[in-house]
């Protein structure tokens, strides 16, 4: 039933919560980071960190992991593992295991790892090392001393030293202490006794809960280029400047574009044809090093190799459209949050897409996954502010969001129940908007894989599963606003143990999908954030077998709160029982002090779905 509303723990949702430090798996005794900027292209980062590992579950917190590339390297390293007051291992730079992260694509991105070995708990592991950066500085190392859930930090320090004439921007949990000398400007952020972070469901954004510093120079030099991050227009100007130099499109590719589009009757038909070509001839590969982390690979390279990252594939599609006479705009975004006017920065974005203005509507095209229907704004972009990049620089624009009420899952089950306790079940399921996303490539699955996905949420036994039909509107976008992707699936299964037989009575479930709502038993210490609106409607039509009649129907249930509503209703007509179930989750924030209302909601819902229908054998 309402599986999407069950609370889940998200790796980016954390909450400060007072617990005894002796009970934690590990603790950070100190985490100090000192960044020394000597020039716009030269920087050193000195790190000293000490972790106490209290048991085997905390071992991963004590490992060393740093990424380097052709622009950075570990110049010095030392460390030690201590147990029971004795040094059991002195760690040298040669003990670090280094692996190429991008083999086959590039040779300059590496992960450096050391895993301490100790069997007597507790033990401490201490690292002291320096990373040198060269060829340019776009941002300073992010300082995030809280490394894991349930892990306190006793002492933290982040120190940035820059030449006195260098202006920096930062976003931090608190204002720094600032000191100036004749030659430098010093920024200090300190942290003392930060309590452990506890997992809870539906939490506020991580950025509002944790001590993190993200800082960057307002003006920068990088690989022979210069740029500014003082505002989004300046960011866009630099991104535009490092775009691939215009070059003639390969003749075979140019011919292919015209072969696909010259006979099209509209711009939309041209876009569809080229989008299909992109789907069939390219694949996504992440490229995040050097200028390649900010600038697309040239279209000719993508054409030759058949792959690219989000930037390269978007720019490649832009070039294909241009050859077909269709204008488009390259844009970047962050898939985790909306860009804001107050935080411009080259390193703020993690994705790139393409905007294609058509006569009646604007397409926001996801080029890394051309399986997505044209005309659909997926969850990572809808409702977000994004940065359009063109010759005028950069500008933030809003991508239209969908109305909260449109996301939907709807199911109708026809249950032909038999006297032996088995049932033949026919299912019709409809999914809309983000709920339809998992089914975009559903037709390509084998039958056994497809029915496994459909049946895994059912609480009753499912055998002899068969897909009857699949229909969707994924190719039906006409170029006008208001397109909503939707898929419908008809399938069937046999449940050999649908009901419980007891002498002359049969007990039947009121819902047949997994039906347990969850709430935490411990006290809530932070607001509950319901970010994703959602609605679900289910209808179960049950045929009562000959010789039986309804002895008992549970009472209908209706619960309405500011964050969600739930209803379960029954109707009997002849030998048919119809059960209607509905859930609506709203976008809102529930104060922690009102968490009991959520528990009450969960209790009411669980009581409703755990009820049974009783059939009695006629005399």
Descriptive overview:
This protein is mainly β and 619 residues long. 13% of the residues lie in helices and 41% in strands. The chain is built from 7 helices and 38 strands. The strands form 10 sheets. It has an 8-stranded mixed β-sheet with strand order 6-5-9-3-2-10-13-12, with no helix packed on it. Helix 3 packs across helix 5 and helix 4 crosses helix 5 (310-323). The longest helix is centred in the middle third of the chain and has 15 residues, at 267-281. The radius of gyration is 29 Å and the shape is globular. The protein starts with 13 loop residues before the first strand and ends with a strand. Residues 1-21 and 103-107 have low confidence and may be disordered.
| Assembly level | single chain
What is the share of helical residues? 10-25%
Principal-axes geometry comes out as globular
Distance between the termini: 35 Å
Give me the count of strands.
38
What about the largest sheet? 8 strands, mixed
pLDDT < 50 stretches: 1-21, 103-107
- How many H/I helical runs? 7
Structural class: mainly beta
Order of strands, main sheet, comes to: 6-5-9-3-2-10-13-12
Give the DSSP E fraction (strand runs of 2 or more residues): 35-45%
| Mean pLDDT over the full residue set | 89
